# Entry
Amino acid sequence: MANYVKIFDTTLRDGEQSPGCSMNLTEKIEVAKQLELLKVDIIEAGFAVASPMDFESVRAISKAVQDVTVASLARATYHDIDVAYDAIKEAVSPRIHTFLATSPIHMQYKLKMNEEEVLERVREMVSYAKKYCSDVEFSAEDASRSDKAFLARVIETAISSGATTVNIPDTVGYSTPQEFASYITYLKEHVSNIDKAAISVHCHNDLGMAVANSLAAVKAGATQVECTVNGIGERAGNTSLEEVVMGIQTRKDYYDAVTNVNTRQIYRSSKLISTVTGVSIPPNKAITGANAFAHESGIHQHGMLQNRQTYEIMTPESIGKPAVSMVLGKHSGRHAFEERLQILGYQLTKEELDRAFDHFKLLADKKKTITDRDIEALLANKKVQIHETYTLERFVINSGNTITSTAMIKVKCGNEMIEKVATGDGPIDAAFKTINQITEQNFILNDYVIHAVTEGEDALGEAVVKLHLNGKKATGRAISTDIVEASIKAYLNGVNKLII
Ligand code: KIV
Ligand code: ZN
# Structure
């Protein structure tokens, strides 16, 4: 029988803690709900003890999802484990994930503990976590640089103390596929109680081998893979969820393994993460990059026309990637729009549908044809709703290469209308400075990206800004057929998040 591999998603923990990927509470809940639709087995919702905000988001996610296990990370200390359990206790299926390093370098310099002390701490803390929760995961941090015989003793101790999953991380992305697989084989052969726990792997991508190492471990018998959507994570990132899942599915003949992931939700999950973090997907990224299914060469196109399998090892449909089709326009009614959303697999509440239809109509006034990708972009940008303190009423920009750029922006704030004018180094700078004047705050712009969502003259532009104010950060985004409008709205979106 095929090996069932659990997918443990740590986008909201290891992914979110990487630079430029922070999310606010509303965004985290939206992501967690999408991960539930994707049918991952476990969501690592955060590191509850890290801050009151982290605690709140782990707690809120625990309550927001039902059909998936929710884990919180905890160092191997009483306090961390207490706080982790407090945050996940309302989840339908809670998991405490505790960890301690096992490599000589980490034990000597970071922990200042010897092998016997590490073994004792593992015994004590896994047993302690087990009093709270039947589902306990233990991770041997930096396992891939640990002495194999010692690692086997640690894993045996964790299992005999109650761990139901033992995780073998390649914390610094140092291992190679054959070497990493040999760790799994070794543990299977030398840990007497290994059949009492799931064997998990957690790889980082410092040498670009996180997916290869994870898949090699699956081949050697690992039954859980820890990964993140789009591979976001510390430094060069974590194992990419979509690559591992599609690797297992596409090469079932080789891995003899299955996951429970609904692969048709992969594309949408990837887009959502890119949208909420503002980190774009490289065009040549495996599985979800814009070019992943594009065939440019004549020879390839000819082959594809004869038989798609000549150059296509998986289909765009299998990851839920919408075809570029001209589906709707300004005369399309609500019924057609609703039907299209159903075909694309969206399940919206009536309120969400009303809102989406209003935005669709506004877009249809500006754009001749609305493709499935436009609809995806529209929904990705409008789904994560936040309270809008400031909304754009109108703007006028005066710019050129021989004049100073000037922006006039009028916004609505409650019942009040505020209008200001400012100059800047180009139209966008002038617009952003005007918004700072309106809000009487000095928001700092860290990053600004604009890109086209679809092709063509009237393509939708998506603007993403990263702002900070007094140590708080937010990503703002918006779409429009006018890139200046998209930029202003994205800035206001970021501002509205920061001042909540
Ligand atoms: O990379 C790592 O070792 C981790 C552990 C805490 C699982 O993220
Ligand atoms: Zn990690």
In short: The two ends are 52 Å apart (CA to CA). The chain has three domains: 3-277, 298-383, 391-499. Residues 14, 169, 171, 202, 204, 234 surround zinc ion (ligand 2) (CB under 6 Å). Residues 3-277 form a domain with the TIM Barrel fold (CATH 3.20.20.70).
